[in-house]
């Protein structure tokens, strides 16, 4: 049979000191049989409360477990459907590759979309890729430039050629929209108007972003032709030559 202190611990923890003192005083005045009966009743009451707490916690745990299991089953079903769709639906890269027609002659790859030439790619003896990309306005922002550059990298590497980087020449010419290539327009805006560095301006261009994505994270400015009016920076850039290469 547990002693009085053991039975009174729950009450002590609950801050019921006055009630405990009262119960202890009453117990002292009881006969041995009455004390045992009182202790038995307190023990029973304590155990009933303890088991009720356990039952409630068990019910809560079971409910959470059921919810978690249902959630897991839904997620698994969703993932299975998604994987099946991914296998059936072609990726954007596959769609672009199917759209683009490629001709390869005289070490130059030419890319066409519905008989419109989108650009060309070639590689130098030093392993630098050169591109001439001119995407019509109605076909821009569809990642054709990305596909052309990455496809050419893959192609020449499979040919056993070392691709050391991308050599770019951005210029003003009548064939471009508003007479300026997209890369030169982007570079000029960041370098001349926003006063960013040449390196940051270069990597902010469409070609620079693709180059960086493919591991060519170093840029070298080879040459340029500018309108110099004597300030810290030129007033205009006519063309610029640069290389993106691996560090």
Written overview of the protein:
- The chain is of the alpha+beta class and 247 residues long.
- The protein folds into two domains: 4-88; 93-245, Aminopeptidase.
- It is 52% helix and 21% strand.
- The chain has eight helices and seven strands.
- It has a seven-stranded mixed β-sheet.
- Strand 1 and strand 2 form a beta hairpin.
- Helix 1 packs antiparallel against helix 2.
- The longest helix is centred in the N-terminal third of the chain and has 57 residues, at 32-88.
Q: Would you give the CATH topology of the largest domain?
A: Aminopeptidase
CATH class of the largest domain: Alpha Beta
Broad structural category: alpha+beta
The whole-angstrom Rg is 39 Å
The spatial strand order of the largest sheet comes to: 1-2-3-4-5-7-6
Helix and strand sequence: HHHHEEEEHEHHHEE
Q: How would you state the average pLDDT, rounded?
A: 82
Beta-strand content estimate: 15-25%
Oligomer: single chain
The largest pleated sheet is described as: 7 strands, mixed
CATH architecture descriptor text of the largest domain:
3-Layer(aba) Sandwich
> How many distinct helices?
8
